[in-house]
Amino acid sequence: MRETAAPSAAAPGASDAPPPADALPDDELNALNAHWRAANYLAAGQIYLMDNPLLEQPLRPEHVKPRLLGHWGTSPGLNLIHTHLNRVIRTNCRDVLCIWGPGHGGPAVLAGSWLDGSYTRTYPDVTRDAAGMARLFRQFSFPGGVPSHVAPETPGSIHEGGELGYALSHAYGAALDNPDLLVACVIGDGEAETGPLAASWHSNKFLDPVHDGAVLPILHLNGYKIANPAVLARLPETELDELLRGCGHLPIHVSGDEPLAVHRALAAALDRSLELIERIQRTARAEGGVERPRWPLIVLRTPKGWTGPAEVDGLPVEGTWRSHQVPLAGVRENADHLRQLEEWLRSYRPEELFDAEGRPRPDVLACVPDGDRRLGATPYANGGLLLRELPLPPLERYAAPVDKPGATRHEPTAVLGNYLEELMAATAGRRDFRLVGPDETASNRLQAVYGATGKAWQAAVRPVDEHLDRHGRVMEILSEHTCQGWLEGYLLTGRHGLFSCYEAFVHLVDSMVNQHIKWLRVTRRLPWRRPIASLNYLLTSHVWRQDHNGFSHQDPGFIDHVLNKAPEVVRVYLPPDANTLLCVADRVLRSRDRVNVVVAGKQPCFDWLTPEQARAHCARGVGIWHWAGTEDGHRDPDVVLACAGDVPTQEVLACALLLRRHLPDLAVRVVNVVDLARLLPREEHPHGMTDAEYDALFTREKPVIFAYHGYPWLIHRLAYRRVGHPQLHVRGYKEIGTTTTPFDMVVGNDLDRFRLVMDVVDRVPGLAVRAAAVRQHMEDARTRHHAWIREHGQDLPEVLDWSWTG
Amino acid sequence: MRETAAPSAAAPGASDAPPPADALPDDELNALNAHWRAANYLAAGQIYLMDNPLLEQPLRPEHVKPRLLGHWGTSPGLNLIHTHLNRVIRTNCRDVLCIWGPGHGGPAVLAGSWLDGSYTRTYPDVTRDAAGMARLFRQFSFPGGVPSHVAPETPGSIHEGGELGYALSHAYGAALDNPDLLVACVIGDGEAETGPLAASWHSNKFLDPVHDGAVLPILHLNGYKIANPAVLARLPETELDELLRGCGHLPIHVSGDEPLAVHRALAAALDRSLELIERIQRTARAEGGVERPRWPLIVLRTPKGWTGPAEVDGLPVEGTWRSHQVPLAGVRENADHLRQLEEWLRSYRPEELFDAEGRPRPDVLACVPDGDRRLGATPYANGGLLLRELPLPPLERYAAPVDKPGATRHEPTAVLGNYLEELMAATAGRRDFRLVGPDETASNRLQAVYGATGKAWQAAVRPVDEHLDRHGRVMEILSEHTCQGWLEGYLLTGRHGLFSCYEAFVHLVDSMVNQHIKWLRVTRRLPWRRPIASLNYLLTSHVWRQDHNGFSHQDPGFIDHVLNKAPEVVRVYLPPDANTLLCVADRVLRSRDRVNVVVAGKQPCFDWLTPEQARAHCARGVGIWHWAGTEDGHRDPDVVLACAGDVPTQEVLACALLLRRHLPDLAVRVVNVVDLARLLPREEHPHGMTDAEYDALFTREKPVIFAYHGYPWLIHRLAYRRVGHPQLHVRGYKEIGTTTTPFDMVVGNDLDRFRLVMDVVDRVPGLAVRAAAVRQHMEDARTRHHAWIREHGQDLPEVLDWSWTG
């Protein structure tokens, strides 16, 4: 493939064309090209060389790595952008963060960082000379070295180059509340096909030109993915232009395969973009303009694997998918490949780029900025450096008063909403806390926050609208992917936030949270990466209360998903009531470098604990609720009723009441679990309990009936190593559900109070004879409830109309 | 909100405007409106009434359901489309399938189906008269009744109205290889914000106008989601028009809130769309045109909750988000709400719509088609009716010859590729098998299929491209969501397919597979729903072999995710070699109503089993590999080495070799697990083993060292009920990884042969004294390998250079 050599003017209909392509003085042009050539040389060198980095000797097979790994195809394009962003930063004295969407091109980003000296600042043993270059080359994709992609180890990055789709939402997240920051976001034409990326184009309807920074998307069309042409690269330019205008952008097109012409056109396009961005920001900030701006965007078309081998073994490689990874694969065995590699590497004329000691020559570095402005050194990419403690309100101000357990009810998330309102108000000036959610803030009963801030919205507003706010800090879009991407970008640049989501649909971001957990697992081991605020999920509208929706909205499996991941990162909390939710919220908002999953209901829920009790319970993570049990302090209980989650807790306490009434001699212990990882062994999770602690709560041989919020086998997976495990019997969600009443749901899944009493009768040995009658009585109660519900379409009031008398 | 009453012309720049709005004769117009009024009445009736369905008596509180559930807001729009699709079907004698993206509007789709008689055909007790109407109303969102959303229970649907985002990809999947079918696809403006939906707009670059049917997207902008305006509804019409043109469509705009005007405009827009579609198909089919067509699309703007209460309690409701669910919430308690409800219901003039027996009057049914053409009766929505057995090739033709175990190696997925090539060839005429994947068919080594068919592609083609084919049946787009949506749509309409995907990134569709499993779980219990072909995943490029990519590409947790779901639906297979993969493929392609997850490597893998052995092993799902063990037939083994997955099998067999050499007196049994659910108890999964079967394989008290492909605790979760469980020790992936060598990966996660030998020494009691020396020897070997890998950047050849001598 060969593109037309000349940079194209902007597409028909564009109101903006880049300025004349010869605006760049020749010496600057040549210096830019030298930087680019150096970066290309360094990228190819990382993929191939383990010795002879400056090609001082003729290339021999033993200089070449035995395993050739990495992605060359995208690297020249990323290098080009790196070169030109350097120029923009230097010329404009601006803070720029770059999101490298095609992060598979790790060699490119590493090359740029090595050239600007930020790599050596981060890793002093990789010096900016021949010895350091040798290390840079050898370590790449080498055992014990650095990963093939842009990764946490890469200075200047907040974006792993693994799974694709999140570049643009990360970029917007980083730009929010950073008014002086320009976030350049390179989007590959492969990534552009993904759903998360496609959704995130509309982020510009949420970007406040007053308080937020700017995002400059650079859509890089190199034409191919692994083995296929990319869809956007094969649209007629007019059609692509319509698409991007329809996304609210002003596209500026740069195309070509003649380096100097492309340098000129790209420099002009970037200058034009910055001019437009400055005009937009000035209009909004100084002149109070309220029109949604049309932000610029650059479409950059250059060949895949540009400057690499044009042909290998008679097949075209440069400009095709064949250059995606390693264009010459047989270098050690195939003399012709070796020769081609040497020709390719020497085509960059390394002797002109590096001095005898391997240091980049001055003209190579002419475009490179200094200090923290370097792309590899910006503190925005190491957000912990910028993080401030949140001004968290005192919990007691919002706690529910509790005279006795189970006498009153509150909507836990509504109580939390009041607390969050104060937090929103307290951060109104600092603007470093955001709430995100897929159009569910009110549905999840957090609407009190609108007392302090509105919903970010830059699109049209009508009189009937409520709480829309050009400067709001609640972010709502019906895309869990975009919500997650925004929040990740916000956290990674040193701010705080909370994601409220329907429990079932948080699975949409399973894959995203995997990547974020992996990111945190690695950054925690890198001393130069400073801790960032945790990614906090509030999962509500949960499996047991999907009255309007039914089976499709019932899935408690996110907990299982997250608990498979790095234990140093993941935490799961199941607060049983409003006050405990407040305590958990306080805890997770203070934590760092974690992914916290909090599951709490939005429906009225009995209050069990006073604020003080809740705080203590939350600190322990698990505890005996003595007031709920009937065990004599001097002997072991006959049975342990355990619970985790609001609805299971309610059913367990109702079961305890029934046992107190019907089997008064039975010694019952009630244990509530807030912090699910407590059930794991101490050596498997930092929150895990020792065996002694576990046994003291659950006993070593008594039956334990455990009512759990989610899939019951998860509890077995956590507790299987315990001595008492053979006595553990778990009830939970078994994928049985439809649109029905709350009590019908627990009955359907055998989690109801009556079933729990039957479980006790079935499992406690040596019960009095009348236990059989009690069991039958419970069976009858289930039948009676079932029939009543089927006839009347609602639960018998008695399932909520009781108060705790223990 | 009030939209301008007149239907707008197409947007500026449109080359097509609908024909004059008065083309519809008045009697037809009135009949359409009568049908729409009836449907609206029935939708509202379902949400509110449990008695007095025809309002023969004044409305009293006891006629109203105690729990008011459902989504009114979207229903009038869906009803409008249902009415008009009826007309189109009847007028054009076409097969139409409708995908109701806003499936929360269950009452609407049920209303339409009841009106056209297909509901009664499916559920004879819900007759098309007053008694049936009473049932229809009462059952909706009622315990023991039908779900609130469009669901498997809904005749005419292949698309659950729960999680949003998949309407358009489902529609395209349904249209593929159904040349005579028109798939209308209603997309809500909420759903349009999701990533999966946004990505799926580009499906039109893959739709073959010759062999595929047509998709007519109807973007329904009612302006609001749960609590927010929708983004697309707040774009200026010109900008929205650009966006949709950029997506390759020709938008036809219909807007208004005056029913008769909207009826006229919508009828004209549909007629125009059909005319365009017919022209496109004629051009491609009869005239051999090869230009990618610009398919029509309808943008329909009508008020949310149209015809419902305009105001409630002084706040605007119709045309706002407040009509999203139940516009009048307090009907039983609030006399004013009750009065408003009665007014609202009577506003449809039910007495004009239904006769005294509650039967729809003739003019209401004038637009309704007959027989299988009815939207609620089309066999395309009950794909099992159309399903044919696949012509599967004989396995032996493609099997790897195996003289002795472990002497040769094959790439399992490449062997499967050959088999799939024949299957592709055998279905060339029938066109009922497709392979989908996110740009990975060749990367996953299945490229042999290109010998039989190419990659579907309607966009521009260049000379360098390979295997692109306007009529191809391999579908590649870099969107796992779109791949999954296409395949689901294809399967649900009665065809077959396979999804090949990188193991780590299949988590992108966690949420989609949840919904599909739920769908199948319900349809399996509906006698009128005929079984469909299973959804088959081939997960490759798996956790142990991510040489080019590293940590971000390592995640074996999809297995855990799927095994949480309905056991009657889910199956997981881990074939240890190429021949077993062939047998598993044969099995899953024959199966029905399942989600099958097959994990297999693409790298060269030792051949262990002959085709006959593989077939027998696959049929059992788990078995002792006697040739690999050293147990004396007359006594129990000292230790069981179990394995599941290709890499773990290799390490276990190497461990068995080491034990044979170093501890020759030890009686070792090797057990391989192909079908993971076999480990579950029989009562928890249809494939589960009885305790007797399990004990016969794994013993009741001997140590079992289990090398597993994924997260080790999953094996405990499956086996915790077994007597021998305390002796079970599992090795697997522990989230330790980076870009490194294959053997370094297994060492890092303690899954390597040396570690397994050490595990044996640590766990088998009463070993000879020299076992300690053997253990040290293994420890030394690990150290030696580690150092060699760090120095040389590759594995010592000995980890692959051995042959099985047992």
Uncertain stretches of chain A = 1-15
Highest CATH level, the class of the largest domain in chain A? Alpha Beta
Query: What is the end-to-end distance of chain A?
Result: 80 Å
Which chain pair shows the most residues in contact? A-B, 125 and 125 residues
Let me know the average pLDDT of chain A. Answer: 95
Biggest sheet strand line-up of chain A: 12-9-13-14-16-15
Number of domains of chain A: 3
In the CATH hierarchy, the architecture of the largest domain in chain A is 3-Layer(aba) Sandwich
Helicity range of chain A? 25-40%
State the major sheet of chain A. 6 strands, parallel
Family (chains A, B): Belongs to the XFP family.
Biased composition (Low complexity) (chains A, B): 1-16
Domain Xylulose 5-phosphate/Fructose 6-phosphate phosphoketolase C-terminal (chains A, B): 602-804
Domain Xylulose 5-phosphate/Fructose 6-phosphate phosphoketolase N-terminal (chains A, B): 26-385
